[in-house]
Specification:
This protein is mainly alpha-helical. It contains three helices and no strands. The chain has a domain of 42 residues. The mean pLDDT is 77.
């Protein structure tokens, strides 16, 4: 008996009280759905970043404006430039196992 009275009481409350939560009645009309934008793959667009020349100029400028190079760094850079040309550079440093004179036929800078 108590169960039926409780059910009737809950039913009356549902009729009298306004709805709330996820079971709330929709009083406003639903807005029209927006048309879906077509998905654009980022791989379908061309690269919009800097060109190779612009990037090289930027890094060159950055290398020149950073800290001044020490003598060892200058010598390493010179050795690298000679290596890019395919020539030997007698790279030496204090305490090296071979002196500069040990390199035969090498370019002296």
């Amino acid at each position: 008996m108590r169960d039926s009275i409780a059910r009737i009481f809950v039913w009356v409350l549902r009729l009298l009280l306004p709805a709330h939560g996820r079971h709330q009645a929709h009083t406003r009309p639903e807005p029209a759905p927006m048309p879906a934008e077509p998905a654009v793959s980022p791989w379908s667009r061309p690269w919009t970043g800097p060109t190779k020349e612009e990037a090289a100029a930027y890094f060159r400028q950055q290398a020149e404006t950073t800290m001044p190079l020490t003598q060892v760094q200058k010598e390493r850079r010179t050795a690298l430039e000679f290596a890019a040309l395919g020539r030997d550079y007698p790279y030496s440093y204090p305490g090296a196992p071979f002196p500069r004179s040990a390199f035969s036929g090498a370019v002296s800078a």
